[in-house]
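Slides due. Your pick:
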Amino acid sequence: MDASTGPQTADRHSHLVQPQIMDWQKTRFPGCEAKTLLFDRRTGLMTALMRFAPGAVLPDHEHVGIEQSYVIEGALVDKEGPAKDIACGAGEFIWREAGSRHAAWCPEGALILAIFQVPNKFFEADGRVVDASGADWDEAWGHRAAQRARRS
């Protein structure tokens, strides 16, 4: 599992993460940065602090697993999709079922604690389906989707 984990806790099965000393990592989405607190490659479970500049948009995407977001500052607004115009403000929590699809934006900017399972599917204007890094979704993750389907 990836994160800035202190060695003093790893032997006790507790992993202290210190986001205040981590650098913000740019994403491919303008105005969106992240600090990954937990990433379990086996399950795809990811917990991250997400920081959005005012007006930043997370474009059309589908969550392959449940998405959970706790808004610390600002607001997360569904820009497109079935929940269009639903706004989750500071101190509020929103979760979405597996298979939910939407575009989200932060009109005034936001700081969010996000918990979800990667890989989310992003739908490009040219018809391609990619992951958050821009890699072809089927090539990078199709085998995992097939494995999950066999286990269900």
